[in-house]
Specification:
6-stranded mixed beta sheet; 60s Ribosomal Protein L30, Chain: A; 5-stranded mixed beta sheet; 20% helix; alpha+beta; single chain; 11 strands; disordered N terminus
């Protein structure tokens, strides 16, 4: 499992932050990407899928893509861009499509905080490593755009819930485990 260290403020905020009901959040399903303004919340439940979240405080928007696979069969047609508007089924399409829907230009990229979650090994197979491949693809396509990952919670053998709060420009990642053991990572 790839886990970056928690910022000090995050560790302090974990115990003190009340959780908002998930009914307020806009659900982002598999293969979807959604953008919200300053008052919105976006949420995805992830297993081997990967959630790519962009928090853009200066632009007043947040976005979340729920990606199923790294690339379409046969690779990514980045030169033509023909499949980029297809949504977030593939990581290769989701990164540029999400930036476009948010209205971000290349000059805005340094102001965008990227959060990654998911990419678990849910199938218990040594041959099928979709979660790991999704995580690698996310890093690849974010690097191609010059976007830096601010926080990631990837890998493992359990699902995660990713909640983006655009009003607070914050995120919460909750582990979903079979025995009710829950870990929560928040940043405000």
């Amino acid at each position: 499992m790839s886990r970056q260290p928690l910022p000090e403020s995050l560790a302090q905020a974990q115990a003190d932050t009340p959780e908002r009901p998930s009914s307020e959040a806009l659900q982002v399903g598999i293969g979807q990407l959604k953008v919200a303004g300053r008052a919105g919340q976006l949420q995805a439940v992830l297993g081997s899928c990967i959630g790519i979240a962009f928090l853009w405080e200066k632009g007043g928007r947040c976005g979340l893509a729920h990606c199923l696979l790294p690339e379409p069969p046969g690779g990514c047609p980045t030169a033509s861009g023909a499949l980029h508007d297809a949504g977030a089924r593939y990581v290769s399409q989701a990164v540029p499509a999400l930036l476009r829907q948010m209205g971000a230009r290349e000059a805005d990229y340094p102001d965008i905080t990227v959060i990654l979650a998911g990419g678990a090994s849910m199938l218990h197979s040594t041959r099928l490593c979709v979660g790991r491949e999704n995580a690698a693809a996310a890093r690849k396509y974010l690097d191609q755009c010059g976007l830096q990952v601010g926080y990631c919670e990837l890998g493992g053998k359990h699902g995660r819930q990713l909640l983006i709060d655009c009003a607070r420009q914050s995120y919460t990642i909750k582990d979903i485990t079979p025995f009710g053991q829950e870990a929560r990572y928040e940043h405000h």
